[in-house]
Amino acid sequence: MTKVITKEDLLSWLRQLAEKYTVVAPVTSNGVTLYESISGSEVDKIDLSFSNTELSPKNLFFPPTEALFTIVQNERPEIIPAKVDREAIIFGVRPCDARGIALIDKAFLAEPADGFYKEKREKTTLVGLACSAPCPECFCTSVGSSPADPTHVDLLLIPTEAGYITQIVTDKCKQLLMGAPVKEAEAVQPSLPSLKSVPAEGITEVMSKVFNDPYWDRVADRCVHCNICAYVCPCCYCFDIRDYVSKGKIERVRSWESCQSAGFTRIAGGYDPRSTKGSRLRQRWYHKLLYFPEQFGDIKCTGCGRCVRSCPVNIDIREIINDVQRMRA
Amino acid sequence: MTSVNPFIPNSATLIKVTDLTYDIKLLNLQLEDPVLRENFDYKPGQFGFLSAYGIGEAPFGFVSLAYRKAGIEFAVRRIGTVTAALHELEPGATIGVRGPFGNYFPLDNYRGKNIIIIGGGIGMAPLRPVINFILDHRADYGDFLIINGARSPRDLVFANEFDTWAQAAITKVELCVDRCDDKWQGRVALVPDVITQLKPSPVNAIAITCGPPIMIRFALARLKELGFGNEQIVTTLEQKMKCGLGKCARCNVGDKYVCKDGPVFTFEQISKFIEQF
Predict the structure, then answer these.
(1) Which ipTM value was assigned to this complex?
(2) Which helix (H) or strand (E) holds A280?
């Protein structure tokens, strides 16, 4: 016997939760699936058969723009720190995206920690949803995850014909599930979808040897530095900090940036250590496949396939990994 | 639950503004919080971010010494929007300060050694607290040579302090400029050439350098010709920085973040970087 929650019970549980928490869940409209805040009366809008959201759930902790603090000009300037909203539940996080959040955690929570981000993370519960059918570009099993990987969520739901198998991962979720209509039932764990494999094993070792290869300039030739790869990536976290002034109110704003932007590394006076497109493109792949693994132990890629789907010139991380492996002398 | 938003600056009052050159001002600040002011500690080589509220934030090396308790000082060259805004401020204005960030020159490890300071232009700014620290502890260090170069005589920073430095025991100050005016009596030479002319001995010596990347590169080559080993040459790197926490991902050289792992590196470390700085 396994613990199972039926679809109807799941929705009524979410309806209850929405009274106390901010509930965020995948909603599809006009063919585009995105995470949206859901009120109790809107739970029927939740898309339970989505393949994956267009944008990753990183937005919910690390939004495209956010005020870090506000300055009010009184007699002296007064700083008002940004506040974190009430506790949130993100429903329907795919295992690859949960891993993306875990990778950003490694960077943002490393000392000196970003306490503002930390507070948002601590006030959020991740309810994962295992994948029944992979996207054509997925390769999570090649980068240390799987379609039903419970590692980085608080609760994992595995869809079966009898309902959703509930796999409790953290204590945070145990509390949340108290009083939820979870029943003992016969449910067969579905077999996992099989994914195409990408040879990511041992990639860091090869990366450390091919830094000066002309390959990076060649790939960069077709890059139009639109930055979409970084924006859709569940684990890219380059950011900019700027002041925004409106009607006497000053906000210091953090916003998404990309290491692909011209001028990303240009210092006052004009010197730019990464002034060429090739050096910037190389930085992206080196951060993902060498520097981050050296700093934190993991490849900075979740295999979600979003960058592959979004790139207007078909720069494909799967191809890059294959090409780099072929450079292994 | 306590969590600290590391982007929030501490407010400080601008106490005094001194013109170092036509485009560089020395800002002397006092933190507004008296407890923080008393305990605020930083070391030569570390840096902080200065905020011109409503304009933005930029990183600057500390040019003062914490233990002297004479205010926090930064040398600000007017070169972008934030520095232009900081130049506009009058004493009494509020400036945001975040820091200290980064590592520092391990001056305690250099006790007993001969020290050579090689600075170019505004690159002298982070070296000024090193010089003053060594002068404050003069007996702990051996021969002391300061080579300071700039594009022209009017670009030399801390010119009013050269005499004080030169008066210290066994301390030599060598100035040079790329281009001179009629009044200039000193050397007209590039910093790397002055190194070759003066031939400082590498025996029991440490060379500390900061300046434009091109100067650092040639200074390094000349020092190596004289027999300096990579571990005897120390520099502080400048890269574009936004957060100071090793997170915004723009100041990295290979897998090292200049803001967090640096800015101070020996050439032994730099020689192992996968990427050129």
Answers:
(1) 0.90
(2) helix A277-286
